[in-house]
Amino acid sequence: MINLTREFFIQEMIPEDLNVDAILEELGWEIMQLMRGIEIETLDLDIEDSWVKVRVSGADEGAAENLISRTYGKLKRAEEARVGESLKGFITDLGEVGYGIYFKAFIGKDCLYPLYEMRRQLVDNMKLSTRAIANIYGFMNDMSMEINVTKIDEKGIYISLSPKQVRMIRDMVNMGREILMIVRATPKQVKRALNRTGHSRDVSLIRKSFLSHMLICKRKTQAKGLIPRLGPYLPGAKFSTISKDKFSKLTEVNFLNHSTQ
Hints:
This protein has 261 residues and is α+β, with helices and mostly antiparallel strands. It has 3 domains: 6-72, no CATH class; 78-165, CATH 2.40.50.140; 179-242, Alpha-Beta Plaits (2-Layer Sandwich), CATH 3.30.70. It is built from 9 helices and 12 strands. The protein has helices at residues 20-34, 61-72, 115-122, 130-136, 163-174, 187-197, 223-230, 244-248, 253-256; strands at 6-13, 42-48, 51-57, 86-92, 100-104, 111-114, 144-153, 156-161, 179-183, 203-209, 212-217, 238-242. The protein has a 5-stranded mixed β-barrel with strand order 4-5-6-8-7. It has a 4-stranded antiparallel β-sheet with strand order 10-11-9-12, with helices on both faces. The protein is globular and about 55 Å long.
């Protein structure tokens, strides 16, 4: 019996209502391609509370763990969280509370992106609701984003979005480039859908996680117009858009009157 001596979690989530076995198989093949030249005997992937667990054994198992961790991010426990660190987080339970958005980023405890921090960082302190800000930025459940840990106390872990990520979104919008967000689809599925619909040249694909992707549209390509084209090839996927039209609403009086919940 082979002894699987290395076991760890990576910063990848797979919702358990999807075809987990097929997704893990594709992820496994990707990891094996990554580890060409590294001597391992066994690679096994599983999920626990939707997080991907990796077990690996072989002569180079230590090197394999380091390479996998650097590529996908190694998942920490909540008690290992440190103020100032940047990592991958996944939106969860969007719209369930009015005082912010919860992210999964650690084992054992969710992180809160507080409404006051969302207002400060994303809408220049305008008195908009969580739901209104989420709509402008195309937030949705299972979306992966780069986050920074800003505070830790007895009540929990608090985060903000990476300033670099927010700046990139705003720069793209200011340049007239719309953005299509896709979650719950693998890289292979997204690329296949783009090729089959002839839209691979109309977007730049940015991978945020294995099941979360950002498509930067070329000028004159509308993000919302891609949804009915790509949707039939991505069953189970969810979409959202970011556009200049949404950002322009920040200056409209009716938008400023949203309840702060």
